[in-house]
Amino acid sequence: MNAALIWSNLPQLLAGAWVTLQLVALSGLLGIAIAVPTAIARVAGPAWLRWLPYSYIFFFRGTPLLVQIFLVYYGLSQFDAVRQSVLWPVLGQAYWCAIIAFSLNTGAYTAEILRGAIQGVPHGEVEAARSLGMSGSLLYRRVILPRAFRLALPAYTNELILMLKGSALASTITLLDITGAARTIIAVTYTPVEIFLAAGVLYLILSFVIIQGFRWLERRLNAHLHARLA
Amino acid sequence: MNLHGFGALLLEGTWLTVRLALAAMTVAIVLGLLAALAGRSRVAALRLLAHVYATLVRGIPELLMLLLVYFGASVVLMKVASLFGHDGYIELSPFAAGTAALGFMYGAYASEVVRGAIDAIPHGQIEAAQALGMHRLLSFRRIVLPQTWRFALPPLGNLFLALLKDTALISVVGANDLMRNTAIAVSDTVQPFTFYGAAALIYLLLTVLVTLAIAWLERRVNRGMRRAAT
After folding, report:
1. CB contact under 8 A, B192 and A182
2. Residue of B173, B193, B202 to mutate, interface with A, max A Cβ within 10 Å
3. Which pTM value belongs to this model?
4. Domain limits, chain B
5. How many CB atoms lie within 10 A of CB B130?
6. Which stretch is the leader sequence (chain A) (predicted)?
7. Is A29 inside any structural domain?
8. What is the CA radius of gyration of chain A?
9. What architecture (CATH level 2) is domain B7-221?
10. Domain ranges, residue A166
11. Could you identify which of A29, A177, B71, B92 might form a hypothetical disulfide with A20, taking C-beta atoms 3.0 to 4.6 angstroms apart as the criterion?
12. What value of ipTM does the predicted structure carry?
């Protein structure tokens, strides 16, 4: 084991960690933006519309993330219409392709988590809101969604950790995230054991920070639930 | 969908994907069982080892682990071989590296599953076995182990589905699985969307088949179990 070697390549690995963080944070946020309407459509949408969120979730949960990334990054370039469109400056870049693929992927998983949480909101609370005259979007905005987000937090933390690990696939489409940076360094130094282990430690630190952060959030948001136990 | 005569190549790749998934799952179940037993051992060092394994390994990306095993193993093997006076180039086959890496990763998840399954066995049964004069090992083999399978099957099924999708990563180190054979077809025909789309459909089909197989297995292992009247 060569500590000096890891030390001298640390700046490159840390730059990779910044890219990894961006990928996870951006696709996490976009994923939630996709998941909320998808989950609601799946629970409460009109019957003729429910096949749409269902097949979206079915596809993205049933195929490997690597296929999804390649479909976006390589696949879209097959169509001239895409290459000549105004979107090409975005769709032609590996960075945005990775973000799009990750967002769609995590959006599908998050939608299922959120669906479970929406269905897990105690009926009494929904009935109480209805008896106060709330319905439709007001009911969702004030009672169901705030409650469902809190219920979904532990499962969503797991999903975010899976997302963090999945973000390593960005290195297969030339992005220099932690894994990508490690592979570039190794191509020069040929010291796979040291550098990949150092990269592994960086991932462990990131997942530790995410887990602790969400535990804190959970304690704060669900304080009213834990108070009784204390 | 016109596959330009590459259908057979894709099927060959699919077959390797299936074999890799089954081989890695076998390794994972064996490792998971050993780690779960180590976690319940009377020796503190073994318990610690099992805990470290389950915690650390689950925080590292599958792709990183695969790269570490594939490139790291050949470096380590060559160093060991040079001690014995052999100086040639040694390389682990991508299939072996994939089986080892995925088996090792999913073994950590499986250990948690098996631990939970062992805990789910009613304690009275083990006490009854002791009362009949069975010692630890015998009661484990006759009472605990056969039932562990029944409790562990549903979560193991989920793990296998995730593992099946993660086998796509092996294409990164050059095994001719479905993903890599698809890439070969893409470089020849320059129709990435068609072929990655076809690969996605094949993965979806595998996912559906595995889901059905798990449901069948679950019915089988639970035959003869009493259910609460509904």
Report:
1. no
2. B193
3. 0.91
4. 7-221
5. 14
6. none
7. yes
8. 21
9. Orthogonal Bundle (1.10)
10. 19-180
11. A177
12. 0.90
